[in-house]
Write a structure and sequence with these properties.
alpha/beta, Rossmann fold, 11 strands, 24% strand, globular, Nucleoside phosphorylase domain-containing protein
Amino acid sequence: MIAFVCAMPRELRPLRRRLGLHRTESGYIGRVGEHPTIAIVTGIGTAQAHAATAQAATAQLLDTVKVEWVIVVGISGAIDNQTPIGTLVLPELVVSGADCSQYRPKPLRLGDAHGTLWTTDSLLVDPRVHADLRNRGVVSLDMETAAIAKVCEQRGVPWSVLRAVSDRASDGSVDAEILGLANPDGRANSPAAARYLLRHPGAWLRLVRLARGSKLASERAAEAAITAVS
């Protein structure tokens, strides 16, 4: 069985729609061609961030379902301000910002992998940090992949990652307040969003732009993930 692992419901939504997945106790199941599949939502962050995390959710999946291949699917923030929204991210290396541990994903048949995906629980807004990461070959940031990779490698399960750019880390579009508008499970926190707009009435265009970027990136990542296993 192939497992698609997403952090947030919005990342799972296009997979559910395109593949006609239906919900079970273990996750959302269906098929891609001849391959049985299961998809889960882990929540945002690694084990350090929240109890219902990517690490815990992935471990539970692999301990209860016979999975032959895990594919991390979702969105990420680009380091380079010039990276177009929706650009696919196929990293050759994933690094945990917590301890600099490194993980190499199984290649996908979608083109040459390049660059490093940096997993962090922290919101990185300092331009000096961005410059340092670029010098290390980092092309994009996320909050879950290294934790998922760690669990997969501990259990001897091959894994890959396929993300698409939803925003840019260095353009100021996402800050701590924006990040707080999502619950730990990745669902939108509507009361928090309403309070945010009361404090910042001119920010609605920013939220709309981020929502559109997230939707486009989720669609691109899902489409590519399905292609990769078809």
